[in-house]
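Exercise 7.
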Amino acid sequence: MPDFVYGNTRLRARRAGLLGRRELESMVGLGVDELLGALSATSYGPDIERALPGSHGLARLHDAVRAHLARALDEMRSFYRGRARAIVDLLLARWDLMNLLALIRGQASGAPVADVLAAIVPVGAIDDAVAREVARQRSFSAAIALLASWRLPTPQQASALLEAWPEYERTHDLPSLEAELTGRHAERVSAALAATGSAGAPVSAAVAKRVDAHNLLAALRLREALVRGELAELSADDRRRAVIGGGTLMPATLLAATEPGAPENALAALARDPAGVPWVEPVHRWVDDGDLAAAQDAFEHALVTDAVARFTRDDPLGAGIPVAFAAAKELEARNLRVLGDAGAHHTDPAVARTRLLLV
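Solution. The predicted structure, written as tokens, is:
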């Protein structure tokens, strides 16, 4: 069996340094400089000191949070060896995909290099140096060629990018390109996790739940497009592009969520689906208020709550501990960005507090 003992011991020790509800709520209402000062006394101190030279205020905060998250996840990875390391690598593989998509979006929109770098969390193969070189390419096709020649972020993803690129050049349909890359990534990771058996089950369950959230939100967005008349009907390509593999929700459940009839039908389908239980409450809220953005936040809250609960719910010597730690660090980074943005824009503290996701 994979040996998670040493790594899990290190992560349980680091759990005490996570910013909890009390610490985060004490930072509500702080200006950006005050927030940077408060964080300097925590594990974020070294990252604030090393933030981009010349940066200040919100840019300095975002850079420090981004660097700290990358450092924490890379250090977590380093605690494991052998089969345990391979399972943790699969847990962190989604950062390869997210960084790849950030580079692609930056090239497609002609975004400044600094803006692209701000969207990169250098976990895995795409570090800041690689991202900068790709982002500074003068054409989208040159950036694709560079990623392919470097076989980044993984050989499989570079191959998928090359295969999907001719269709993008023909249609300039960025969502289709992203959907193709996301789908191929999900299939690869799900297959690799299935091969790990019971040892990788906590990671496999967490990845499948995230896929379910992605697919359900995509289905509800398609429904909204139908209701608003932005789509006359759903084509087979629309459905293929919306759903990625590796999830556990039944196809009939996702189909019901796309139907433009009574929204209660989607809720009833979820209630009948054994994998639908985590999503019943947020979808019930969406049925009541029609706010899909709020539903997305509720989905994220459900994902993080389930993952962090593995600290106490799962085998202390199993793969659930890195799942919990990674989720807790990502949530921490998300909440600090919310606090920073609130401080920069002088948001009412009561409003800022509602935007935090607290577990």
